[in-house]
Every structure is written in structure tokens, then in C-alpha cells.
Design brief:
Largest sheet: none
Number of helices: 7
Radius of gyration: 40 Å
Coiled coil: 13-47
Order of helices and strands: HHHHHHH
Keywords: Coiled coil
Helix content: 55-70%
Length: 193
Amino acid sequence: MFYTFTSATTTAIASTEQLITSLQNQLDAARQELARLQQQQQAEQTAKTAAQTALEMVQKARKLVAIAYGDAAVAEFNNALVADNPLLEAQNADVTTDEEVVVTQATIVTEAITVEDTATIDVVADIVTEDPDLGEEVGEIQIEKDLDFTKISWTKLQKLAVTKGVSIKGKSKEAIKKALLGLVTQQDIDQAA
């Protein structure tokens, strides 16, 4: 009886191992097929993207040719595109069906492009004040209202100037403030303080 039980158990274990091996082989085959399908899908996506890019480039080239040389040049450009691709003619010629095959020259419809040229005139005026220092004073008053340097110490002002690339060698506090005017914001000053 023990021998029968052992024999049956051994047989069951062996058949289970065979089943597991078979399932692992099927799983490996399925993984390989999945990898192949993913590679094929990626290759198709790459080809589709390349084709879309090429089509966009041809459309842009047609527009540029039309702008530069006119519609006659666009027709010549289209003919050159078809002539440069013998695969198109070969693909058309290889098609065999019960119906009559007619190979025709590819035609491309283009949009009419209108280019408008408008002249632009830039007017530059110099504003002259009677007092040459008046403009600077007004500017300084406005800037002093915008930026408050009172919270920052002399050494921290120097550090801020150095971080902004302003030379501090031999400059007064006011000169450094003027040099920083276009380079810092009030938030920069508050953070440095």
C-alpha cells in the first residue's frame, strides 16, 4: 500500500512538473510574441512619425517655392518629387488584379498663397528737456519709490552686488544702488537683508 501511494504521488508530481514546464514554455513564447509585437508597433509608429514629418516638410517646401517662384515652379517641384521616387511607379506597376490597371502621373493640389507686403515706418523722436539733469532726477525719484534699500546693510548690499555681477571696487553705496537698479527686485533686496 505504501508503494502504491508513493508511486501515485511520484507520478502526480512528475505530471505536475511537466505541466509547469509546458506552461512556462507557453509563457516564454507569449512573452517573445509580445516583445515582437511591441517592436513592430514601435517601428510602425516611428515610420508614421517620419512620414508625417516628411509630408509637413514637403508642404512647407511647396509654400516656399510658391512664394519665391510662383505656381509654375510648384508644378515643376511636384513633378520632380514624383520623378525622384521610382518606387511609386514600381509599386503602381506591380499591382495585378482582374481589373484593368491604369498607371497615372500623380497630381498634387496646392493652395493659392497670397503674400502681402506692407511697409512699416518706425518713428523715433528725441525728447529734449531744458534741464539735462531733470530726466535723471525724475528717474531716480521713481526708482527710489520702487526699491527700498534702507533694510539692507552695507556689507549685504556689497554681497548682493557681487552676486549680480556688479563691481564694487571703489564705489560708494549710492553708486552700487544705481548699478543694481535694473538688476534686482525688491524681493531680492529683502532676501539679502
